[in-house]
Amino acid sequence: MSQPSAAQSLPEAHGLYLESIRSFVPEERIVVNPFSNLAYGDDASFYRLTPKIVVKARSTEEVAGLLRAASACKVPVTFRTAGTSLSGQAVTDSVLIYLAGAWKGLQIRDDASHIRLEPGVIGAEANLKLAPFNRKIGPDPASINAAMIGGIAANNASGMCCGTSENSYKTVEAMKLLFVDGSFLDTADKASRSAFTASHPTLIRELEAIRDEIAADPELAERIRRKFKIKNTTGYGINSFVDFTDPIDILLHLMVGSEGTLAFIAEVTYRTVEEHPHKASAMVYCATMADACNATISLKKGPVSAVELMDRASLRSVEDKPGMPAFLKALPEEAAAILVETRAPDKAALLAQIEAVHGLLGVVTPLHPVTFMDKPDDFNRLWNIRKGLFPAVGAVRGAGTTVVIEDVVFPIEKLAVGAVELQGLMRRHGFPEGIIFGHALEGNLHFVFCPDFGSPVMVKAYQALMDEVAEMVVRRYDGSLKGEHGTGRNMAPFVEMEWGRQAYALMVRLKKAFDPESLLNPGVIINDNPRVHLENLKPMPPVDPIVDRCIECGFCEPVCPSRTLSSTPRQRIALQRHLSKLRRARDEEGAKSFEAHYAWFGEQTCAADGLCATVCPVSIDTGKFTKELRGRQAGPKARKMAAWLAGRYGAALRVVGLGLSGAHLAHRVLGGWLMEQLAVSLRELSGGRIPLWNRWMPRGLAPARREAVTRGKGLQVVYYPCCVTRTMGPALNDTDQRELHEAMLSLLRKGGYDVIYPEGLDDLCCGLTFESKGFKEQAAAKAEELAKALRRASRDGEIPILFDTSPCLYAMRARQFDGLTLMEPVEFIHDRLLDKLHITPQGGTVAVHVTCSSVKMGLSAKFRAVAQACSERVVIPQGIYCCGFAGDRGFNHPELNEAALADLPGQIPPDAMGGYSNSRTCEIGLSRAAGMSYQSIVYLVDRCSVAR
């Protein structure tokens, strides 16, 4: 499975393509390894195709060259951004042009009335940039925290509030496009429009011909208008031909929803929409699905921005989530709910709209009183539950089953009868666990069920269900078979059924005009294979209870520090599922080769930080799985060594301290540049076995004599200096040359605290060092040993306990030692020190990095508040979720730290006075990436404060 052999085994056309693109794409961005390609080719749909070649494109010039090469070699290509699409439009067995990790250009224009975006920008990131202007992009898919602009536009993804009035089609202003022949068009530039019209006369004439044919057929034109009054992403957006006359304007709008089958979208300019500052949401519980739908029909006339429908099965899937009312479990089987939102420019208008909504709800009798919530924490909790419905259902599915989500639209007046009939169809075809939810205000319903595609009987049941759903939606209700998820592969066989022979023929002509050889994402939207939706179904074999609930939605990927280096949580799980498949097939040779490839790609470069669980709708911690894997792979010798170190931990720390002291001395003598060159050479000579030194490495510390500090002020705290801060002092170029415990004692002294140290401090450890390597027994033993010492020091929890680094505190909290009040620096300063200090904010700017452990403990807001109390300006760089240092991983795999912080230097202002965090090893990596000192936030607070 090495890359050379994989390249040699390519079909002739792909081999020629590979040789062609090597002349202008660096080798490190071309992947022909079937192992890696399996990971990169995975998406959120229930289809699995493995690309033969993956190319990580980084510029329009590269994409133009890739397209010209594809045309010359007759090789199909597919474009891919976040891979959150659900209908099979981002998978291929040919060439995958992979954009994630780059293409992040973003420019806000014209007082934020417009925003220019490259395809790799995540939708939520665009909204974050627009938030200060009270603007946002129109599309608001549930996956907006992971979905990227390229996919949002190419799929015409809409969501819960944008409806048909603020989607990509209605808000697109311009695009930059690349076509299959490599030609370029900027629809906002008159010269580019003229040049393209002149160079592509055949395409322009065909667009004009289709426009004129539709205009000459009033019945067809009216049918197109009628079908696009409701949500519709089935087939191409041929409403472009009735909404516009200029062929370039038609072309621009055809790109929306074209799923990469007509051209490559290199940039999108959207007209932004208002983000109302005042919102309120309420859950309305109804006795039946019909009641909920009838309430929605009534609300359609009122001041509501969204109405989200959830059937009883949907509610059951989330009834145990935090914040859900207890009565949810007692709702009758026929019950349903609608989540209603109203938005307004001011508080008075919001209250008036709430009153109006209450009046419109008079058509039904709710099962419980309707209460609108206008505080973000409250209504965001409701909306997060709604956004997580699809993955939550997937999480409780049976082992080996796949999650299928389909997306249909009924005219609003037929919503109630259509929804009830849809429920009956799922039960009749053997999917009683199926749920229905969706954007009821638009008549747009999603239905989710979990077939086992390993069973031919279940595949036939799925086929029969889809056939009957199509018949019902199209023939009886004249609805849409796709409202926002795109046509993809799973609805391509039904496009002609929905649109009829005449309109479908126009779509075939469109595809031919743009892509005569069918090289752009073939098989998607236009497909002659009536069984394509039943082929290449994704296997989901069990791997481990920790990850088996994963539905590969991709929500985890934006926060993963290794996402641009190796693999993401979703990809790791997909690879482990393939390995499970090999083992079940008793392919020992294949499994052994697979495991060898996985070592660096999946395990060694996993930071195991657990941030993936914070954004996963079902809280899957792939880092925990990685630790389990490390534990299973550890041999007897490694386990014996771990046990030996755990029993002699203080001595081991002294050895580490001596080593760091020696390196620090060499740094002072040789200087930073020469020392780094020597470090790189030594690491290369050792084959990567020697950890990489850098100029921000700390000096070593010897065990210090620490006695209780008593001042008789009455306040007491148990202070536990963590093993890393007992071993690692400041770096040579750090701003503050005190040891962390000195700064902490200074701060506690100002706050009037008596300090108590636990006994036997030099040998104590929270166990995180062992846990991260999979040595669970040693980790548990060290944690228990520390807990006992802290109980004695704190008088069995009577006195609060302060850790000076966040990761160690999190590790202990996770073990839930009852009765102990455990706090980390930011939390202790915010809750127990700020009111005892007089703080004078320093001038200039400070950069702050909120560690993974702080994020998981919900301390981000307190971190910002403490920093803002101490500095006139605080910068928290965006898109930096984890530094990737991961304990000692930054020494042994520095490439992980570099990749995780690649975007950091460009976000550090020139006037930055320094950086602050609350984890010593993280601070090493941050300092290296930023080129300036990062230290504990304790130093900052101590420097700015005096006792009250």
How would you explain this protein's 3D organization?
One of its GO terms (biological process) is lactate catabolic process. This is D-lactate dehydrogenase (cytochrome). Its cofactor is FAD. This protein is an alpha/beta fold and 948 residues long. It has 39 helices and 29 strands. Strand 27 (912-917), helix 38 (920-930) and strand 28 (934-936) form a beta-alpha-beta unit. Helix 3 (34-40) packs across helix 21 (569-584), helix 18 (415-428) runs antiparallel to helix 19 (456-476) and helix 33 packs across helix 35 (860-870). The model has no long low-confidence stretch (mean pLDDT 93).
Q: What's the story with the biggest beta sheet?
A: 6 strands, antiparallel
CATH architecture label name of the domain at 278-485: 3-Layer(aba) Sandwich
**CATH homologous superfamily label of the domain at 278-485:** FAD-linked oxidases, C-terminal domain
| CATH fold group of the domain at 278-485 | Vanillyl-alcohol Oxidase, Chain A, domain 3
User: In angstroms, what separates the terminal alpha carbons?
Assistant: 67 Å
CATH class value of the domain at 278-485: Alpha Beta
Q: What general form does the structure show?
A: globular
Radius of gyration from the alpha-carbon trace, in angstroms: 30 Å
Structural class call reads alpha/beta
Discrete helix count: 39
Low-confidence parts lasting 5 or more residues at pLDDT below 50? none
What level of helicity do the residues show?
40-55%
Strand order of the largest sheet: 12-14-13-16-17-15
Q: What share of the residues does DSSP label as strand, in percent? A: 5-15%
pLDDT averaged residue by residue: 93
